[in-house]
Amino acid sequence: MKKSSKKNVDIFVILFIALSLLIANMAMASADDAESKVKQVFEQIESSLTNLKTTNQFTKSNIRDELNKSLLPEVNIKFFSSKVLSKNLQKVPEELREEFSSELSKQLINTYSNMLSKYDNEKITIGQGSLSKSGKIAMVNVTIVGESATNKAVVKLLKSNEDVWQFFDIVVEGISLLDSKQAEINSSFNKLGAEGTLQRIKELNIRSINAS
User: Fold this and answer.
1) β pairing state of 150-159 and 165-172
2) Which of 40, 67, 190, 209 is deepest in the core (most CB within 10 A)?
3) Interval 39-84: pLDDT, tens
4) Sheet harboring 175-176: ordered strands across?
5) What is the mean pLDDT of residues 109-128?
6) Answer CATH for 2-210 from 3.20.20.105, 3.10.450.710, 1.20.1250.20, 3.40.50.2300
7) Is the pTM of this model over 0.85?
8) In angstroms, what CA-CA distances link 87 with 77, 79, 198, 199?
9) Are 197 and 189 in contact (CB under 8 A)?
10) 108: exposed, middle or buried (C-beta count within 10 Å: 0-12, 13-18, 19+)?
11) Distances (CA, A) of 134 to 138, 145, 173
């Protein structure tokens, strides 16, 4: 009887180890997928910026066009918008929610184009990725190396129901783009409400386009 019991314990130990290794391998593969997605998108962005520089077309307007093609399709706009709106989402009438998402996505691209307008042939290197406990969020390290300075960033991605990694935030030198936008929206909602905030975002987007 004791021998049979020991054999059962051994089987359970073997099964536990095998399951742990399987989960670890799946997590590693998933983190690698997130890294590959970030590398693919940033290589495309870097190539576009270099091309704009060499052809003397390096303007915010052209940068925005490139980002609309290479970055925007990879962003989970619905998740980004809901996180930015946060507690204010319930204050947004149903008929305005899609418009909010659209204008926030424009603001996201405008913010990136403003940041990247300072690009001066820095080398963008994609580092190691890590997963949240749920395995639904990945954080991928990015290093931007210039002649006089090196900046570090962390790109955050969300895994969709179709197992596709999508961008939703970037943290540059400890400052989260999503958190910054959320603070702006909170302040605006307190002063202007839902419709006033939407109008303000539209005006900022138009102003950013006109300044290109």
Assistant:
1) antiparallel
2) 67
3) 999 999 999 999 999 999 999 999 999 999 999 999 999 999 999 9
4) 123-131, 137-145, 150-159, 165-172, 175-176
5) 88
6) 3.10.450.710
7) no
8) 17, 14, 16, 19
9) yes
10) buried
11) 10, 32, 25
Token pair listed for 116? 């990247």
Q: Distances in Å between the alpha carbon of 135 and those of 23, 50, 129, 165, 177? A: 11, 35, 12, 11, 22
Place of tokens 């947004």: 92
The count of residues in the chain is: 212
Question: What is the C-alpha to C-alpha distance for residues 156 and 170, in angstroms, rounded to an integer?
Answer: 6
Rounded distance between C-alpha atoms, residue 136 and residue 119, angstroms: 31
Burial profile 193-209: b = 16 or more Cβ within 10 angstroms, e = fewer = ebeebbebbeeebeebe
Of 22-26, 103-107, 168-172, least confident by mean pLDDT is 22-26
**204: confidence class by pLDDT, cuts 50, 70, 90:** very high
